[in-house]
Amino acid sequence: MKKPIAGFSTLSKSEKIEWIATNYTQNPVQSKKILETYWNADSKLQQLHDEFIENTISNFYMPMGIAPNFLINDRLYAIPMAIEESSVVAAASKAAKFWGSRGGFKTEVLGTEKVGQVHFIFKGSYSKLESFFTKIKSTLISDAKHLTESMEKRGGGISQIELRDKSSDLQDYYQLHCTFETQDAMGANFINSCLEQFAATLKNEALNYSSFSEQEKQIEVVMSILSNYVPNCLIKAEVSCPIDQLNISKEISPKDFAEKMVRAVEIAKVEPYRAVTHNKGIMNGIDAVVLATGNDFRAIEAGAHAYAAKNGTYSSLTHAKIEGDIFHFWIEIPLALGTVGGLTKLHPLVKLNLEILQKPSAKDLMQIVAVAGLAQNFAAVSSLVTTGIQKGHMKMHLMNILNQHAATEQEKATLIEYFKTHTVTHRGVLNALENLRK
Ligand code: MEV
């Protein structure tokens, strides 16, 4: 019978390891060894990672790969990707190479507006609340000056504060709906600090507003927090080429391929079951770059899926059309990213990855990340409408199967060669390995 522990966070790292290994694993000696194997030999670097979070006991490795040859707005990029799924980097690289010789990717930043809200309960007359808000709006901004000054110097700051009446959705519920520009920062800390200051000003000013009744003076702030839904922090990335250049394989004509791609996207637009998987493929590319550049992939995921459902039905984030004899394929996605602050200066690999990406601004990074998503989707959907996904997936998965069964380097080389002309299945690989070992 397991017992809860008090004060776990106050234990030393080795005490924590001892406790978890002893109480939750069958072979504590072996468990401790595994955890230690993943420690960095450089104790300073290890300490840096330990201090990113609470209760660190080890590091969890994720492979980091490079997808080279991305031509974006006529500039060449090699994109770092941190991801565990075997086929993602290969698929991105393939799409990059394909589009690199067809004009490359073109992008446009459609907006960079971030959002935050103060949610509050007000019991009283809305017209009085409106007059109150008009009166205090400039104070809301001036009270936050100590927070906004340096952001303003960089060209950002508070863009707008709006009072929103949400009382038809929830009794007595109102908001300050606020928008911000945060330049190269993702801006979460800046926005949350501003919002908490707005909330304090709102409450204080209400207490002193003589036109309010005693009840109206008691504004209840429920919470102040940024929104990860940023429909106006939007990026478009596109590829296009004459249909006859879509010579993807000998098995399918360029025209059939173009039509199938458009059809597949149309299906993802109208069928949520497909749209979710279609968008998951896009996020394979997006998350990998977001993670490699030290950004918050959960925020990006949440915002992207909300955007995919913005018209009331969950739908595709990419679009495709044939216009005349030109095939167009594009993505429109909200991406709130930062290239300063957060982990960007702290995590040595994040720093290196930003250097590999030629020190992008947040806007540049939005473009690169959107392109990675579009490339990934192009690769996935083009496999789906031609050979099927398993052929490529299983080829990439071959190494995982071989490693699972402790294949030697010699066995790996032989079987990789063999499976160039044979279909990869789990059983097939095991049989081949057994034959080889006989
Ligand atoms: C797998 O990780 C991603 C795909 O399922 C995406 C898609 O179906 O478009 C291949």
Structure characteristics:
16 helices, globular, 10 strands, binds (R)-mevalonate, four-stranded antiparallel β-sheet
Layout of helices and strands:
Elements: H1 13-24, H2 28-37, H3 43-50, E1 64-72, E2 75-82, H4 88-100, E3 106-109, E4 114-121, H5 126-143, H6 145-153, E5 157-165, E6 173-181, H7 188-207, H8 214-217, E7 220-227, E8 234-242, H9 254-270, H10 272-292, H11 297-308, E9 318-323, E10 326-334, H12 348-356, H13 362-384, H14 389-404, H15 409-418, H16 426-437
Antiparallel strand pairs: 1-2, 3-8, 4-6, 4-7, 5-6, 8-10, 9-10
Helix pairs in contact: 1-2, 4-13, 5-7, 9-10, 10-11, 10-13
The number of E-state strands comes to: 10
Bound molecules: (R)-mevalonate
Largest sheet, order of strands side by side? 3-8-10-9
* Main sheet properties: 4 strands, antiparallel
Distance between the termini: 47 Å
Number of helical segments?
A: 16
Mean pLDDT figure: 96
Order of helices and strands: HHHEEHEEHHEEHHEEHHHEEHHHHH
Q: Work out the helicity level.
A: 40-55%
Cα radius of gyration in angstroms: 26 Å
**Contiguous uncertain segments of 5+ residues:** none
Q: Would you tell me the structural class of the helices and strands?
A: alpha+beta
Strand content: 15-25%
Shape, principal axes of CA atoms: globular
